[in-house]
Amino acid sequence: MRDPLFEPIQINQLELKNRIYLPAMHMNMAKDHEVTDQLIDFYAERARGGVSAICVGYATVDELSGMSTNIGAHKDEFIPGLKRLAEGIQTNGAHALVQINHAGRFAFAAEQPLAPSALETFGRVPEVITKKEIGDIVDQYASAALRAKRAGFDMVELHGGTGYLLAQFVSPRTNRREDDYGGALENRQRFALEVVAAIQGAVGDFPIGYRFLADEWLPDGLQLEESVQFAKALAAAGITYLSVMGGTYESFFLPEIVEKSKHEGYMVDLAGAIKQEVTIPVITAGRIASGAFAERVIGEGQADLIGLARVLWTDPQWPKKVKEQRDQEILHCDPECDTCMQLVMKGKPAFCVRWPHEKMRNWKEKFE
Questions:
Q1: Is 210 a catalytic residue?
Q2: Which backbone phi and psi does 203 adopt, to 5 degrees?
Q3: Whether pLDDT at 359 is above 90
Q4: Which residues pair with 95 in a beta bridge?
Q5: Are 214 and 164 in contact (CB under 8 A)?
Q6: Looking only at Cα atoms, what is the longest distance across the chain?
Q7: How far apart are the first and last CA of the chain?
């Protein structure tokens, strides 16, 4: 058994059996926001593989905050499906978390998306969110989190990464407001902290995690100097953990970032920088493909947990194989391949081309 990767860790009232976490992924497997059997099967398989916690998502906080292929958390009618999903994970050995989100200026389901400021986004100019609308969206986050609790999830995660709405307010690049929600970092972080407070008011001591954007990887975007201060504010507000990432949809496809993302552990340095400044658990991710590398990241104190997205997408048995020292049997994601991302960007259910032929064929048949 590898140590410390397989040591338990306490997060709020939850004890996780190891340091391996599956972050939320876009998979386009929901139908009209409803949880499908395919989605439950996908996550149940990964729970059986030995991961300690699985975050599903993202789940929408209102009708137009995401696509219809995203899980819905904006109506009570979605609670039964969410409950089936949580139970499918929990009964197979992992804690179940759900990520809730509003895409803001990236909400392409909306005829005209909302954003902190009217900056052109992939050919469209969003409408500026009014203060009344800010209050409404804060309430929608709180209601979505309460539905997650009622559905039986162990924790809720706020998606503050990838350049979505929470991150859009914090970023000096996308927030040009001149009111109480713009200008200095103290104001730009106000929306996120109001969301956290509203959720706490709705769910009590139910734990709240945060998908945290540490650096936009854009010259005029949010960078570590300010994000470190924001991390401290979230920790002080009662956030349970920070799942640290870098980049947004406007930087992911830049040639230098594409090349950077092919390297193992390409976001670990961001997590390490945040971990030095907070006492709550920090999760890192980004091409952490081997057990030895994951063990080193934990052992060196750069993070408390390892987020494995594409790694577990490709091989759900990764935790068991690493624990049993069967590393040579691991099916690895090809860093030169981007098929799953391309399928997601086209709004189609994603699969991995590295899967065995029969598994891939059966997977495709599920969606015919």
A1: no
A2: -115, -5
A3: no
A4: 53
A5: no
A6: 57
A7: 41
Catalytic residue among 43, 164, 181, 241: 164
Domain limits for position 75: 9-366
| Residue 2: inside a domain | no
Q: Residue 339 pLDDT more than 90?
A: no
Q: How many CA atoms lie within 13 A of 145 on its CB side?
A: 29
Give the CATH number of the domain where residue 187 resides. Answer: 3.20.20.70
Which tens digit of pLDDT belongs to each residue from 63-117?
Answer: 989 999 999 999 999 999 999 999 999 999 999 999 999 999 999 888 889 999 9
Give the residue among 100, 203, 108, 103 at the shortest CA–CA distance from 158: 100
Instruction: Kindly report the pTM of this predicted structure.
Output: 0.94
Residue 1 covered by a domain: no
pLDDT at 315: 94
What pLDDT does residue 304 have?
A: 98
Per the structure, how many domains does the chain have? 1
CB proximity list for 181: less than 8 A, separation 6 or greater: 116, 131, 134, 169, 175, 187, 188, 190, 191
The length of the chain is 368
Are 209 and 155 spatial neighbours (Cβ–Cβ below 8 Å)? yes
